[in-house]
Design brief:
homodimer; 9-stranded parallel β-sheet; TIM Barrel; 2 domains
């Protein structure tokens, strides 16, 4: 494949990706929870098809634009897992005319606006905050939750579906026991809310889930539905959290070497912030990492090259510091495969995939 | 304008932008240096036209792909200001057939490959490292520079043009005197190299320049050519360096408010890492900033709202912490204008501009 790649290119190993999807579906089943994969990571109708072929029929997305893109490809049950942007009411009405659209609300103001402007029936989740602190009603604020449920149930075209929460603080975990503690605390808080309101809404759903939890823990029982997304590709961040092994990372950025400085153990690649994103990891020794070099194989990449790390990036350059024996073998015009720190952000920038079996897969424009 | 914006949108104030371009052209003239603006920031043929109408006829870009995009719009003198990616030799040959293409080299290996494969005459700069440490030949390594000039002069289709350097370390400056010190040191080093080789190549050019230096200093004499790019829009980073005032920032991201948490002084916007990028500033109190709220005016934005800062971002969410009186006035469905930390990265993600006088300007696809 390599001879055809001449510029920074996001390479996808379909075998690993399919395995990641299958593993997560099985894991959800074993945990007696339904799975609604988050498609914000891959943003691709084609990759969405792989999920569909494995039995998935409901998804989460992170914007209404993305909901439209997947609805156009036949997805009929879509949760937009971000508080409603009421300025997009026309998109909401047009989507709700043809699919089961599930929105996320967390204020009376939004329910009021939706009630006034919705033309079709829409389901809605109440967003709870169990400690991440981004958004949502604090899960212990039962009066506020109760008031919001009432307003949803009074609204003409809204159906209350249940509670949705995102344990984003799981991203700071670095051990299984931390992940487990965060998950248990999260689930207990949501379960407590559910118990409080189950009489009022017997069919309510508890929707949770992040890749650190669903990837890193064998046991994540306790919710009705999980919404992991990143697991489709994984990345260095997830490896560091303990949610995957290096061998489960399904994407790498193939970058041409444009300079080698043996005297300083530097390899410069064409591949920078407009390809990787500026997301970085802080390694255990306090240094930062924007990507990790993996061995170049005939048909893709292999194991990580120890200590060959993208240390700095600017708009189009990446600066790799590596061990002398690695740098010595690097030549301008070769490709290096770099495991990304955050595959969601990298995929969003690259806008298409080049699979290891030489297909081009497009993404949402 | 606001009623038409319903999702995160990059808004451009054309008046400020034109003023920035005019100011820099005048400043370069005053400093008796020629200007080759770097187009990697705006990546737009339309905005390129504004430069052309003000007399600019040569540009710098950061990739061959970008060179192709601007060459298609009639630009005839383009420097690709990143070491040559030899895998793109076909693009180089096709460009060099129709424009004056200036490449950047820093190794004998690359000169050898170009010599073997070039079909048309190409100019080339030698990349010098004056202290930034990204790439280039250390400016005090005269034997290596001499060897490289010889190999370029022996090559059939290469013409040695001079020395190119980027004072990227100017981005860490926070005062005029730091900027001035970095610039003087940089210029002295390049001038020393030029003096050494001017007999061998009497027409050699010294090309330098970054927005911190050209924006922040009144006096940046000493080089033949400057290549600033970011000044077309500026941003919070440049304001912090001292290269511009808030009032010179020509772009802001208009983001819908999707949640308000008065109890925690938080405003949540639709606008995250896929819109702003993950570039951040560390403020003087040690906290981080991904963007700064500006006042909403009828036809765009005004002054910064003191202490209303985007403190955290995830893929699609931005979390603004602001003073109570600001948060109290925020309502879901309103737009907030956010000044970006790094306009190059934000523009690259947004892929088009919405001007304050309601034009849509496209960018390189």
């Amino acid at each position: 494949m390599s001879p055809k790649i001449i510029q920074p290119t996001l390479v996808l190993n379909k075998t690993i990706c399919l395995q990641n999807i299958k593993t997560m579906i099985k894991k959800a089943k074993r945990n007696k929870t339904s799975i609604r994969p988050h498609f914000k990571t891959h943003q691709s109708q084609k990759i969405g098809d792989w999920f569909r072929q494995l039995g998935i029929d409901k998804i989460a997305v992170s914007s209404l634009k993305m909901a439209v893109y997947f609805a156009e490809d036949g997805w009929k049950d879509i949760t937009v897992a971000i508080p409603v942007n009421v300025l997009e009411i026309d998109r909401i009405n047009s989507l709700a005319a043809s699919i089961q659209l599930n929105l996320v609300v967390e204020s009376l103001d939004v329910v009021e606006i939706l009630d006034a402007k919705l033309q079709h029936r829409v389901n809605c989740f109440i967003k709870l905050d169990t400690g991440y602190g981004r958004t949502g009603i604090p899960s212990d604020n039962h009066p506020q939750i109760s008031q919001l449920i009432d307003s949803i149930q009074r609204a003409n075209k809204l159906k209350f579906l249940g509670f949705l929460a995102h344990e984003g603080h799981s991203y700071s975990a670095r051990t299984q026991s931390e992940l487990s503690r965060i998950h248990k605390d999260h689930i207990q808080k949501i379960n407590a809310v559910a118990r409080q309101f189950v009489n009022q809404c017997p069919t309510l759903i508890q929707s949770v889930g992040s890749t650190p939890i669903c990837g890193g823990l064998e046991n994540f029982e306790g919710a009705d539905e999980v919404r992991p997304g990143n697991f489709v590709f994984f990345d260095l961040m997830q490896q560091r959290i303990g949610a995957c092994d290096y061998s489960e990372i399904a994407v790498a950025l193939a970058c041409p070497i444009i300079a080698v400085h043996e005297d300083r153990n530097l390899v410069i690649i064409h591949g920078g912030g407009v390809h990787f994103s500026k997301d970085f990891l802080t390694l255990s020794d306090g240094t930062v990492c924007y990507g990790q070099v993996a061995e170049t194989l005939k048909d893709g990449w292999g194991k990580p090259v120890p200590n060959a790390i993208v240390r700095k990036i600017s708009q189009e350059h990446g600066i790799i510091v590596g061990p002398a024996d690695f740098v010595k073998k690097c030549r301008v015009g070769q490709l290096l495969y770099i495991l990304p720190v955050h595959s969601c952000m990298t995929a969003n920038l690259m806008k298409s995939y080049h699979t290891t079996d030489e297909q081009i897969i497009s993404m949402m424009p």
